[in-house]
């Protein structure tokens, strides 16, 4: 980081009230344009760049990726040929901060935090892919920064803006979730790290792809030799770089239930089953039980999380011989909500719940509350950044949810159950687990991101 960029962040940190959040622009004409920069423009980043960059009030003013010559990155560059390109987001901010209103962060999980924090401290609105961050502490710091700097932030669990959200809201207001005591969630798809078997350490290294900025890829993490088991796309299997299957899929499966049942943080995470535990990569399969005590009139709730191709939950006995999985009746990813007035099954993303079993659904369908189709997840962010509305998946919602996922990852990494105090935000009686709430210390030169 050069002196100019550092001074901009330092000035923003010490003079936060001088940064004008977008809500103060509400009297601007509807034709106002949002100048957006995109960090991470390949894979999921290409999808998000096209979706946000294609909004009729967005101008793409900068593109950034550490691997700009990768095929999908080249395609994104062709989509927006007038946008300057960078392989280091810090240089992009240093040269173009005054021309950027908002930033989309579409990078590996471990780098969400520093890029988002950099943007927030400069007063930029942020669209950040799920999961929000890679550690419990990083989520906490981003929540504090969002409140301090007053910028609009949307997390990329896009189903949270769709029918699934509208239905949960209507059903919650009608009291249909009042008796729910158990949620069984599952993701039984194959993950990229499953064929690796017993991993005894980090890869020794290979040749770095031509023109790739491998140093910046690490951001705050310890720098290691390049390997295709890190990039592209394989980073999610490593504890230090990703949040595994739960961090990837729980935001699409459990987000609305967690929010509308007002679950917050659990008091206990039980590791009920694990296969091929490993200190470096996520296990082949595991079953986690998150316990949320009764609160403010809501009864206690247990969330069961099943992951692994062959680690499939057994549907409740009322459903007869029904199964989950790739060829099962209920698919490879979804959840059951049990204990309320009705029993529900849902899949993922924006798709709404269905009353089960089918005979019961036919009986009650006409009496269930009606609900809308939802809003455009990307469009709502643009409107919020322009001061004309609010985001759906804000950090007060996505922050605690991601922290729950981080607690699950700690249980998987240490192969143990955890007792957690939501008030002090500490794990009880386990120093090693408490250290993982924070994660490894950032490498030299990147420490400044960990102050709000």
Fold blueprint:
Elements: H1 3-14, E1 34-39, H2 44-53, E2 58-64, H3 71-79, E3 85-86, H4 89-96, E4 102-105, H5 109-121, E5 125-128, H6 136-149, E6 153-155, H7 163-173, E7 182-187, H8 214-218, H9 244-253, H10 255-260, E8 268-275, E9 285-292, E10 301-307, E11 333-338, E12 343-346, E13 354-356, H11 358-364, H12 377-385, H13 395-414, E14 418-421, E15 426-427, H14 431-438
Parallel strand pairs: 1-2, 1-4, 2-3, 4-5, 5-6, 7-10
Antiparallel strand pairs: 7-11, 8-9, 8-14, 9-10, 11-12, 12-13, 14-15
Helix pairs in contact: 5-6, 6-13, 9-13, 13-14
In brief:
With 452 residues, the chain is α/β, with parallel strands linked by helices. Helices cover 31% and strands 16% of the residues.
Task: Give structural notes.
The structure is a single chain. The chain has 2 domains: 3-160 and 379-398, Rossmann fold (3-Layer(aba) Sandwich), CATH 3.40.50.720; 162-202 and 244-372 and 406-435, Dihydrodipicolinate Reductase, domain 2, CATH 3.30.360. The two termini are 18 Å apart. The longest helix is centred in the C-terminal third of the chain and has 20 residues, at 395-414. A hairpin with a 4-residue loop joins strand 14 and strand 15. It has 14 helices and 15 strands. The protein is α/β, with parallel strands linked by helices and 452 residues long.
């Amino acid at each position: 980081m050069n002196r100019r960029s550092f001074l901009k962040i330092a000035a923003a940190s010490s003079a936060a009230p001088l940064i004008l959040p977008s809500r103060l622009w509400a009297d601007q004409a509807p034709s106002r344009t949002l100048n957006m920069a995109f960090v991470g423009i390949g894979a999921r980043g290409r999808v998000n760049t096209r979706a946000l960059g294609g909004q009729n009030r967005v101008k793409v003013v900068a593109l950034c990726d550490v691997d700009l010559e990768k095929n999908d990155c080249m395609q994104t560059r062709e989509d927006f040929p007038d946008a300057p390109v960078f392989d280091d987001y810090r240089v992009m901010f240093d040269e173009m901060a005054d021309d950027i209103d908002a930033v989309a962060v579409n990078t590996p999980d471990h780098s969400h935090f520093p890029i988002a924090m950099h943007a927030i401290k400069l007063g930029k609105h942020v669209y950040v892919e799920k999961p929000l961050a890679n550690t419990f502490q990083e989520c906490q710091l981003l929540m504090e920064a969002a409140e301090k700097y007053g910028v609009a932030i949307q997390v990329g669990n896009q189903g949270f803006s769709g029918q699934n959200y509208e239905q949960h809201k209507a059903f919650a207001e009608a009291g249909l979730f009042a008796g729910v005591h158990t949620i069984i969630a599952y993701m039984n798809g194959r993950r990229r790290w499953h064929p690796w078997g017993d991993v005894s350490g980090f890869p020794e290294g290979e040749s770095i792809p031509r023109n790739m900025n491998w140093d910046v890829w690490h951001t705050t993490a310890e720098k290691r030799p390049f390997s295709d088991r890190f990039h592209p796309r394989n980073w999610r299997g490593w504890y230090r770089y990703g949040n595994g299957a739960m961090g990837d899929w729980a935001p699409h499966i459990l987000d609305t239930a967690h929010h509308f049942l007002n679950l917050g943080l659990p008091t206990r995470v039980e590791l009920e089953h694990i296969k091929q535990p490993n200190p470096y990569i996520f296990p082949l399969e595991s079953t986690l039980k998150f316990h949320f005590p009764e609160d403010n009139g809501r009864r206690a709730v247990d969330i069961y999380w099943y992951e692994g191709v062959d680690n499939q939950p057994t549907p409740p006995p009322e459903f007869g011989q029904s199964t989950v999985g790739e060829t099962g009746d209920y698919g490879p990813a979804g959840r059951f909500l049990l204990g309320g007035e009705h029993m529900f099954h849902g899949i993922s993303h924006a798709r709404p719940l269905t009353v089960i079993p089918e005979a019961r659904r036919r009986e009650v369908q006409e009496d269930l509350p009606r609900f809308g189709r939802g809003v455009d997840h990307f469009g709502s962010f643009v409107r919020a950044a322009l001061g004309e509305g609010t985001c759906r998946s804000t950090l007060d919602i996505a922050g605690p949810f991601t922290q729950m996922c981080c607690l699950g990852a700690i249980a998987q990494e240490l192969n143990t159950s955890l007792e957690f105090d939501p008030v002090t935000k500490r794990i009880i009686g386990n120093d090693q687990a408490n250290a993982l709430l924070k994660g490894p210390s950032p490498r030299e030169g990147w420490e400044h991101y960990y102050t709000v």
